Amino acid sequence: MEPLSEKQIRTSFVNCTKGDAARLRLPLDFPELPWEDLDFLGWVDPGAPLRAHLVLPRADKPLGVALRVPAVSRTSAMKSSLCQICLTGHASSGVRLFAAPLAGAPGREGNTVGIYICADLACPLYVRGKRQPKLRAGRQEETLSVEDRIARMSANLDAFVAKVTGA
Fold first, then answer.
1. What confidence tens digit (pLDDT) does each residue in 6-40 have?
2. Which residues make Cβ contacts (< 8 Å) with residue 90, sequence separation at least 6?
3. How buried is residue 118: exposed, middle or buried, by Cβ count under 10 Å (0-12/13-18/19+)?
4. d(CA 109, CA 132)
């Protein structure tokens, strides 16, 4: 992923107000992000831990999606969970349910779509083996190449974003 500026990030969001985008906090490590290892930028807002953000590269301009963490999540009762984006297995605390308001009028009416994602939104780092999940016992090794896992992750993320944008 090519490095993004703060302005590019703030103007990319399709499912929140301009005011919400202006108030979000960038990742604490923003100046040191490993852009070359990222297929998308994902982070939990350091000032509002029940809010998170995804920014995906697109041909014309980045596309941002605002996420919220629902008050109640079933992952707390589970022993392990699987991220629906990168398919990394985690201890239950390593995956969270994130809800994204739909873009446009449906989102303003309160409609959302949810997905279970790595709690730290670091899917690209898990796929590349640069970060390891806490769950180690019983972990299944994949036979797919890193490139194939990246392609699968990107397809899963694109399918989720299509639900948010109505595309």
1. 999 999 999 999 999 999 999 999 999 999 999 99
2. 80, 81, 82, 83, 118, 119, 133, 134, 135
3. buried
4. 39
- Provide the token pair at 108: 């303003």
Q: Look at strands 80-82 and 89-91 and give their pairing.
A: antiparallel
Sign of torsion over alpha carbons 28, 21, 3, 95: positive
Give me the numbers of helices (H) and strands (E) for the chain, helices first please: 5, 7
- Dist CA 84 CA 68 (whole Å): 16
Radius of gyration of the chain (CA): 15
Q: Which of 68-72, 110-114, 117-121, 132-136 has the lowest mean pLDDT?
A: 132-136
Instruction: Please check whether residue 23 is in contact with residue 62, taking contact to mean a CB–CB distance below 8 angstroms.
Output: no
Q: 69 near 52, Cβ under 8 Å?
A: yes
pTM of the model: 0.89
Q: Distance between CA 142 and CA 117 in Å, rounded?
A: 19
